[in-house]
């Protein structure tokens, strides 16, 4: 055989072997993550897989109270990590839904809006479809590609064991093991003490290399109201009022209609949170708006210019907010600079007031004569501290 032919055949064999090996790695990796990528901003991705049947009402209400505080505790650290979050609500066959998945997003308002819509309904036959829920949390939650700068952590929260008679759905232990292969840690939080749940929850967290927590049926959340909550809520709404939508046409929607719909959606969001969210949650959300560089979505011009991701001069005329389109370039810059300065002043007020709020809460806790048992928020915070450090991220 000629040398050229031997080289050609050898190269083909090597290529086929490489492709096969790569495909095998991808197949074994549930998130399609083949290699680690170093560098980048520290990022925490959290997915909560939550039983939303009738017995979980207390836990769901507690999560609505505490989820902003959990996020803020991470984001206030010196490295200022980005936090992204996803949700999987689950019930069982024969209910309104088996699972509802909100993929991982940095739009925390969207996450909270989804959580606020959760109602504890149905159930009653004890086992729930934990199999499908955990599988969706691992495979359908939209995790980012595996990276050394990203800690990816899942919390399975429920009070009932899985329907292990659903043999056509992935086994929970297999799903937890696949999560670990993808770099995802799986924790379990058991609400209440239904027989059979604890043993399964412990096996799942062992397979997922996470932690197991047992908390009260109602979530065990203790929310302390403070004299600063109302003013913080008002400041949160005020900083939201500096939002300025920009962007061109999208699909059948003109640029003007797109910007108008975004601005109206933001206005309605602020109003809805003001009416429906608990006071403690509104106060924590205000703090998040002060410390989160991605507090609003990508259509917010003020955020984009302040972060340096949008160049005002590079925008087309029809992409600008309507109130800027008839202004000169210098006038536009002046308006945007004023909005940024206004936002900074409100943030400073929020931070100052939040310090007073933290002091008040600390002092109230010190007055409590007995130590409260672990609640939902404490369990999540304890796991996050240990597991983020385990991932090698410095907070």
UniProtKB/TrEMBL annotation:
Domain VWFA: 45-239
Gene Ontology terms for molecular function: protein serine/threonine kinase activity
Subcellular location: Secreted
A Pfam family hit: VWA_4
PROSITE patterns in the cross-refs: VWFA
SMART domains: VWA (SM00327)
Superkingdom of the source species: Bacteria
Signal sequence region: 1-23
Keyword Kinase annotated: no
GO terms under cellular component: cytoplasm
Keywords: Secreted, Signal
The protein, known as: VWA domain-containing protein
Organism from which the protein derives: Singulisphaera sp. Ch08
């Amino acid at each position: 055989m000629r040398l050229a032919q031997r080289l050609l055949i050898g190269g083909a064999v090597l290529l086929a072997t490489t492709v096969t090996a790569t495909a095998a790695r991808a197949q074994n990796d549930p998130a399609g993550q083949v290699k680690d990528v170093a560098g980048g901003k520290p990022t925490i991705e959290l997915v909560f897989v939550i039983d939303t049947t009738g017995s979980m009402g207390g836990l769901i209400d507690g999560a609505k109270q505490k989820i902003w505080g959990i996020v803020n505790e991470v984001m206030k650290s010196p490295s200022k990590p980005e936090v992204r979050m996803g949700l999987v609500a689950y019930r069982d066959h024969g209910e309104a839904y088996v699972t509802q998945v909100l993929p991982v997003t940095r739009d925390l308002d969207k996450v909270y809006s989804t959580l606020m819509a959760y109602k504890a309904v149905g159930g009653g036959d004890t086992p729930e479809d934990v199999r499908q829920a955990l599988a969706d949390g691992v495979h359908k939650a939209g995790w980012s590609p595996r990276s050394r700068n990203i800690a990816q952590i899942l919390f399975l929260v429920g009070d009932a064991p899985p329907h292990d008679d659903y043999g056509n759905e992935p086994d929970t232990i297999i799903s937890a093991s696949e999560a670990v292969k993808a770099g995802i840690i799986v924790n379990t939080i058991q609400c209440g003490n239904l027989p059979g749940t604890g043993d399964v929850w412990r096996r799942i967290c062992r397979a997922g290399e996470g932690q197991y927590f047992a908390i009260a049926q109602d979530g065990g959340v203790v929310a302390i109201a403070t004299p600063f909550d109302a003013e913080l809520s008002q400041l949160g709404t005020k900083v939201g009022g500096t939002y300025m939508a920009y962007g061109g046409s999208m699909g059948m929607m003109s640029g003007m209609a797109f910007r108008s719909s975004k601005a109206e959606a933001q206005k309605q969001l602020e109003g809805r949170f003001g009416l429906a969210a608990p006071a403690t949650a509104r106060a924590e959300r205000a703090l998040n708006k002060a410390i989160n560089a991605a507090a609003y979505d990508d259509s917010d011009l003020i955020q984009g210019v302040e972060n340096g991701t949008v160049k005002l001069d590079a925008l087309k005329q029809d992409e600008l907010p309507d109130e800027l389109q008839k202004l000169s370039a210098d006038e536009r810059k002046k308006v945007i600079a004023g909005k940024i300065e206004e936002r900074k002043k409100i943030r400073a007020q929020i931070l100052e007031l939040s310090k007073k709020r933290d002091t008040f809460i600390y002092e109230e806790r010190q007055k409590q004569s007995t130590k409260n048992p672990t609640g939902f928020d404490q369990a999540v915070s304890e796991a996050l501290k240990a597991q983020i450090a385990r991932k090698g991220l410095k907070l």
